[in-house]
Specification:
The structure holds 2 protein chains of 2 kinds. By secondary structure, chain A is an alpha+beta fold. Chain A has helices at about 5-30, 45-55, 100-110, 145-155; strands at about 55-65, 75-85, 90-100, 120-125, 130-135, 135-140, 160. The chains are: A alpha+beta, B alpha/beta. The interface between A and B is medium-sized, with 35 and 35 residues.
Chain lengths: ~160, ~280
């Protein structure tokens, strides 16, 4: 019987490993827009800007996207915000898309797969994309700065798609 | 005793097999077909005309990419055709690939490729290049332009990415994400892995065709004086207009497909069976 102990250990380890992988997968499948405990309810762009400023950040509008395109083609407007200051080692930009109604927002959000890709469109992003949803907005951060990701998660809830 | 030993060997083998199987999906570039999307053809090669709606800053790069993807003419023959849509909007045109550029804004993407499918087969495709970034020194380089043009064009054939990590070493393919496309090795052109994948995607043939159907049709109108001829494609909800424009007859680049307005408006795939060769 003793000779089987290493094998049993291996099997148990494999089970734990596979179980862990499943847990990671289920974390990645967090429903869109689910807020983290303590995350404020941001319903639109003005709310977002106010919330970020209330946290001590400097928020500047650096570009307006008059005709939002894929994957935000249903948005009413798009704005690029530059964030800097308190809590960020270096400035970052996020694009914020505001929607006139829930259906248009859902239509755009649903086409974005959990890994940030789209079913029938291939997009070459300048940096890894991270998609967030809250109220009437979808927000996109391109980059890998953990400070920015933590900030956006705190304000908007966990990303619903992206790397 | 012997049976017990055999059982333990089987168990060990099963565990090893499980470990190998679980590690398999992490092998980079094992398969980079894009959802097995492909154009229908009754025979190879795939004859793919790319509608040129680009401005002059992109002409050389389109030429390079078309040349790159024509290195295996037994598989794919790519040609540059007259544009049938307009930049920057780039409305799709049934049965074609259209290439466009424009200042789409600081929206985060350098380029994109979209395909519309009918019954699992590509019915039309577009590629778009974002000059908001290519007008900036960081991206206004032959290396970046070659990579993006090469990659987006290949997406419209059904090829996906070999690797999506921008910071790891280049694989020597334009289907590899990179923050330094010049390399070495350079990521400006296809590599053998891309050709292997394309060969796999297009290994089979279909009972109908899209691009090639039009080419076959036009060759039967081998008269420069023939008036424009319209042929209806009920499966695609559109009409093709064939017009003679030069000596020697009709060529692929002279056809204009008037796609179903509803399809274009909703931007969805035509709810149709694969394109069948029309009878004239």
């Amino acid at each position: 019987m003793r000779r089987y102990v290493p094998l049993l250990v291996l099997v148990v380890a494999l089970g734990i490993w596979l179980g862990g992988a499943g847990a990671v997968a289920s974390q990645e499948a967090t429903p869109a827009g689910a807020a983290t405990p303590g995350a404020s309810a941001v319903s639109n762009r003005a709310d977002l800007v106010a919330t970020l400023r209330a946290r001590g950040l400097t928020v500047d509008e650096v570009d307006r996207l008059s005709e939002p395109t894929v994957p935000f083609g249903g948005a009413q407007s798009g704005t690029v915000l530059r964030l800097s200051g308190d809590g960020l080692s270096k400035p970052a930009e996020i694009a914020v898309y505001e929607y006139a109604d829930d259906a248009a927002l859902a239509a755009d959000a649903e086409q974005i797969l959990p890994d940030g890709s789209l079913e029938t469109t291939k997009i070459l992003w300048i940096e890894p994309p991270h998609f967030f949803e809250s109220g009437q907005i979808l927000a996109l951060y391109l980059g890998s700065d953990q400070e920015v990701l933590d900030l956006l998660t705190a304000v908007l809830g966990p990303q619903f798609a992206g790397g | 005793m012997r049976t017990k030993r055999t059982r333990s060997h089987v168990l060990v083998a099963a565990v090893v097999a499980l470990l190998v199987a679980s590690a398999w999906p992490t092998v980079a570039g094992a398969n980079h077909s894009w959802n097995n999307f492909h154009w229908t053809r009754e025979a190879n090669p795939l004859i793919a005309g790319v509608g040129n709606n680009l401005d002059s800053t992109w002409s050389d790069f389109l030429t390079t990419a078309v040349s790159d993807w024509s290195q295996h003419p037994e598989l794919v023959v790519v040609t540059i055709e007259k544009g049938q849509t307009s930049s920057p909007d780039c409305a799709p045109v049934t049965g074609t690939i259209q290439a466009c550029n424009g200042e789409y804004g600081r929206i985060g993407w350098l380029g994109l490729a979209s395909v519309w499918n009918a019954s699992g087969h590509i019915a039309m495709g577009v590629l778009q290049l974002n000059d908001t970034y290519f007008n900036q020194p960081a991206y206004d380089t032959p290396e970046w332009r070659n990579l993006v043009m090469c990659q987006e064009l290949a997406h419209t054939f059904g090829l996906g990415h070999q690797d999506e990590n921008q910071t790891n070493p280049n694989l020597g393919s334009c289907m590899d994400y990179s923050d330094n496309p010049g390399g070495p090795p350079t990521n400006e052109h296809p590599n053998q892995h891309d050709w292997d994948q394309l060969a796999e995607i297009y290994e089979h043939v279909d009972s109908a065709q899209t691009f090639a159907a039009v080419a076959a049709q036009t060759t039967s109108l081998n008269d420069v004086n023939v008036p424009a001829t319209q042929i209806t494609f009920p499966e695609l909800g559109g009409t093709a207009e064939f017009a003679a424009t030069g000596a020697g007859g009709i060529s692929v680049n002279t056809f204009v497909i008037l796609a179903d307005e509803e399809i274009l408006e909703r931007g969805a795939a035509p709810a149709a069976t694969p394109v069948s060769t029309p009878e004239s």
